């Protein structure tokens, strides 16, 4: 198949830089939001070994990060894993990757939509005693994101970068103050599995929440068609975001553990009953930072929401361009080069599912955000596992194969992701989280029916999907 590079099917090339890619990937990981929500969730199992759990999660995600980097050097595309897995395993794997990846990211957005409104609502109640419905703030946030994403991906990622720098600085200042004043709370025992009340298994369960905190590190790969010198700059952006956010997590987790004195059992019990440990640290060590801490959490939610939206619409755009989704999804704006069809479809879905889910389960962290986030995480981690398999197969017969980079590291990546995937999806979860594996299986069944329909009526669609990249390298390396 010749690669159609008609301008009506192409995003604008060469408009983004390495910092833009780092901003998107780091914002999608939502480092401040992750530590605020996931640290308290991991603590009952990990205990004072919380920093060790996040360090191990960091290492596990670096393994899959290697796969994204190796593929991005050869196959820069807005489809990212959709394109990678098609190249490595074949058209069927490419189809199911796109199907799962689309679902995973698309479902993260309604949860972020409702959580953003919930956070701003709570802030307005506490600060101004004003009880505006949460969905009003969610809609305001959605309108801003809609405008930015249609008008300019560069403007979107620059806003992400500004908010990200601001919120990370605020939390790093708090972390440094907590460590400085911790006294006997400072100890390297936090990196010993024995510090967890449940030993190695407790650390392992803590790793699950650590890995959840890294979901989104691959977002820069979806900018492969819009980044200057993508084969060099996309891998650099992915690696830089992973390292920067990983180091941030380990520092902040150590500061939280030492500042709270979790090596003292009484303090650990207090921590487990604390609805917002970071605000407690602020009260103790930096009262003047309390307002900035709350605003940083809101800013982190907004930047994550926008990054996930922009990532999702690029995967949808790639599938629409290949006519796996409706052709209108694969169209770009003639002046702004934005995938406006995908943006419109994802915006409508986000608003409808976000308001419905927020009213059904509650909009906050333990409601719609937690539920949709868990479904999305399961789908995305399956895609990560497939990508590690795809990397091994893609490089298996190539002359430039490296045993370490292309075989050993992806195998370790699969092993590292298997336990967190099982922990999130295994039977016996509380309702509504018990529905998660059934929803993912139902989505796969629907995808299978669609695949069989395409194979019967339009087999050329399946055979040619995922081949649109930023240059003709794909045709050179993978000629089927």
Short account of what is shown:
With 480 residues, this protein is an all-alpha fold. The chain has helices at 18-29, 31-46, 50-72, 81-89, 91-128, 134-151, 153-181, 199-214, 230-260, 265-272, 277-285, 290-321, 340-361, 368-395, 403-425, 436-457, 459-464, 473-477.
What's the tally of helices? 18
CATH secondary-structure class: Mainly Alpha
Mean pLDDT: 85
Order of helices and strands: HHHHHHHHHHHHHHHHHH
Q: Could you state the oligomeric state of the chains shown?
A: single chain
CATH superfamily: Amino acid/polyamine transporter I
| Portion in helices | over 70%
What is the SS-derived class? Answer: mainly alpha
Using only C-alpha atoms, the radius of gyration works out to 22 Å
Going by CATH, the architecture would be: Up-down Bundle
* Largest sheet features: none
Counting structural domains, the number is 1
CATH topology: Amino acid/polyamine transporter I
Query: Any idea what the shape is?
Result: globular
Cα distance spanning the termini: 8 Å
**What amount of the residues lies in strands?**
under 5%
Low-confidence stretches: 1-8, 469-480
Based on DSSP secondary structure assignment, what is the total number of beta strands? 0
